[in-house]
Amino acid sequence: MLRTLDSAGDLSSKRVLLRCDLNVPISDGVITDDGRIRASLPTIKRLVEAGARVVVCSHLGRPEGESNPKYSLAPVAERLEELLGQPVVFANDTIGVQATAAVKMLEDGGVAVIENLRFHNGETSKDDSEREDFAKSLAELGEVLVSDGFGVVHRKQASVYELAKLIPSYAGNLIASELEVLKRLTTEPARPYTVVLGGSKVSDKLGVIENLLPKVDRLVIGGGMVFTALKAQGNEVGKSLLEQDQIQTVKGFLDQAVQHGVEVVLPTDIVIAAGFDRDAEFRTVSATEMETSDLGQDVMGLDIGPESAAAFAHIVRESKTVFWNGPMGVFEFPNFANGTKVLARALTEVNGLSVVGGGDSAAAVRALGFDEEAFGHISTGGGASLEYLEGKSLPGLEVLND
Hints:
It is built from 14 helices and 17 strands. By secondary structure, the protein is of the alpha/beta class. The strands form four sheets. Strands 5-6-4-1-7-8 form a six-stranded parallel beta sheet, with helices on both faces. Strands 11-10-9-15-16-17 form a six-stranded parallel beta sheet, sandwiched between helices. A hairpin with an 8-residue loop joins strand 12 and strand 13 (282-286). Helix 1 (35-49) crosses helix 2 (74-84), helix 4 packs across helix 5 (158-166) and helix 10 runs parallel beside helix 11.
């Protein structure tokens, strides 16, 4: 059974290391999407109200074990201070003099943020002893660990796995809520149950498809991964994203879907463009005739067409359970955002459970201006969500189990 904050006892005056996933996009020192910071607030506020001395730690980007101002958590600490409405101390090191001093300064209900965990090789090292040594240094900063970074629980990293073995450890509110939703997707989901998969590569979703095929009613496929499926059906796809080595695998899944009685829905029309550019000339064509337009054979499919978007939306709206992972097109380019926008709007209209599976899907709904409260659940961990749905064991959760 997962140890949660409900079983943590009195945390007043205790130094609590809170492992969050605050890996947010930052451009020129400005946070462009603070969704993960806001998702961490319920646990932080709960600990503050309990009188704990909260030491927030997280990674940001991939600094490869070296201190790099580009990946500093300083902007995150500033935004957290704004959202909490109380001072947040920032230490510009992780396990050094400043971090130790910042923790000592904390009073009951106070919050500090220490610098990027990945400025140290020990956080992500493949060497067990190196991770353990780094975890021991982190453990000196706190008496209790609250693990709430759902986006990293599928990784055996020092602050997620080894640290949880050294001091009393519990799952935070975010992890508990994520698991509750994911269990509803895998254990007796309300039907019809539809899974919508998009994004760039079909190879990223093979495990999910294999594990969920026997459980779903419909599998809807869009995004870049659809071109491997269309190719598997014998269609030409121009210069669209294509995983040649996965064509036979996709054919196998299409056959399995028939055996399981699962309806696989592919786009009937595609928005093609002369190249990968936001201002590229584009057309809408039949999914089976992508190379026949006046744009020539070297076209790229960059979105599902309006006919397909409407059909996908209809399927979603009439479902009782929907899991969506991966955009339907290049939503960052306005000309190729319609499929993702139409699908996202349909998810807000589901009379049941609608789950946005983190990663690019979560970024898309925020970038396209949707109210997050309109969705049943927006996951903070794309990779972790997928691995859970694949049926894999997640180290960061296993270590929190009694």
